[in-house]
Amino acid sequence: MAPAPVLCIVIPCYNEESVLPLTCSLFRNQLESMAEGGLVSRRSRILFVNDGSKDGTWRLIRDLAASDPVFEGICLSRNRGHQNALLAGLMAAKDICDISISIDCDGQDDIAAMADMVKAYLAGNDVVYGVRSDRETDSPFKRLSAQAFYRLLGAMGVECVYNHADYRLLSSRVLESLSEFKEVNLFLRGMIPLVGYSSTSVYYKRHERLAGESHYPLPKMIALAIDGITSLSIQPIRIITVLGLAIAALSFVGVLWAICVTLAGQSVPGWASTISIACLLSGTQLLSIGIIGEYIGKIYLEAKRRPRYIVSETTLEGSRQGGSEI
Ligand code: UDP
Ligand code: MG
Predict the structure, then answer these.
(1) How far is ligand 1, taken at its centre, from the CA of residue 130, in Å?
(2) Of which family is this protein a member (predicted)?
(3) How many whole angstroms from 288 Cα to the centroid of ligand 2?
(4) Which of 13, 61, 94, 295, by CA, is between 20 and 30 Å from 106?
């Protein structure tokens, strides 16, 4: 029988000193029960990524790592955002594990679902998506905006699993393949389906945040949606082209009509309609330029090839495979 896989739970944290002391023991208990059940190796780890927190989050992580070998931490040199922090954690995990599970640190995602994820991996899946089966704990507005978010992504041709955020299991070969994706504009839930391999979903109930506040208010959600669409799809530019063609065709018909009316000896009536059409056209043009500008901005950022994150501190040195057991 194959040995139980070494699991690394990857948890990005930004200003989470209020919630971390509550959830770290929940993560540990879950890992311990999976190791006891023989699902995962006793050399499994919990890896926190401090995303440039301004509070005592890194101090807490360092203390945890010093007091218990199951905890590890890496610290980014500044805040780089959830997606970059997650990638930093996954790339660090790649060297120490057979499978990774990424999860938020606030207890909203059902920690117990990890066991089903590992079982789905053992059944032959390289990617296991954690999918929210209901959003009872979210406000009606959050539910509505999330629905619009996933539908918009789908309509724009971005392949991503409905109601799945960043709670997922990845095998080491998926992590290896993911390391080949060099883009700076990250939207992991749209990138993972591009990696391929066999995948499945595990459903869970989303809970309330145990403490602290969400870092994703509406403007950040919109920015994430724009990033997701513009870094993975060129559908908006195609829509502009089709819109341009349709408007050009309509204008041609309008001009023909105006010529015919003039030749028939009648003047073309109404300046109000002219003004409204001019306003509509200039609005459409500005919007189109904005969308194209968004892509040019993305190309500019990609062209510079700046590092996506810089690790300033780590507890991982000297704790590679073969280290102490839970
Ligand atoms: N997070 C991060 N960097 C950031 C913002 C958030 O690492 O710049 C982490 C945060 O600590 C949490 C996860 O990303 O573990 C998801 O954030 P949050 O719970 O605020 O989002 P929500 O669940 O409200 O969408
Ligand atoms: Mg949360």
Answers:
(1) 16
(2) Belongs to the glycosyltransferase 2 family.
(3) 34
(4) 94
What single letter denotes the amino acid at residue 101? I
d(CA 177, CA 222): 28
CATH T-level topology, domain 7-216: Spore Coat Polysaccharide Biosynthesis Protein SpsA; Chain A (3.90.550)
Residues near ligand 1 (Cβ within 6 A): 12-14, 16, 51, 79, 81-82, 85, 104-106, 108, 214-216
Q: Name the H helices within 20-99.
A: 20-36, 57-67, 82-93
Return the ligand number nearest the Cα of 14: 1
CA of 281 to the centre of ligand 1 (A): 40
Answer yes or no: are the C-beta atoms of 3 and 42 closer than 8 Å. Answer: no
Ligand showing the shortest atom-to-Cα distance for residue 85: 1
pTM of the model: 0.84
pLDDT in tens, the chain (326 residues): 788 999 999 999 999 999 999 999 999 999 999 999 999 999 999 999 999 999 999 999 999 999 999 999 999 999 999 999 999 999 999 999 999 999 999 988 999 999 999 999 999 999 999 999 877 777 788 788 888 888 888 888 888 898 898 999 999 999 999 999 999 989 999 999 999 999 999 999 888 878 888 887 888 888 888 888 888 888 888 888 888 888 888 887 888 888 888 888 776 667 667 877 887 788 888 888 888 888 888 888 888 888 999 999 999 975 554 577 87
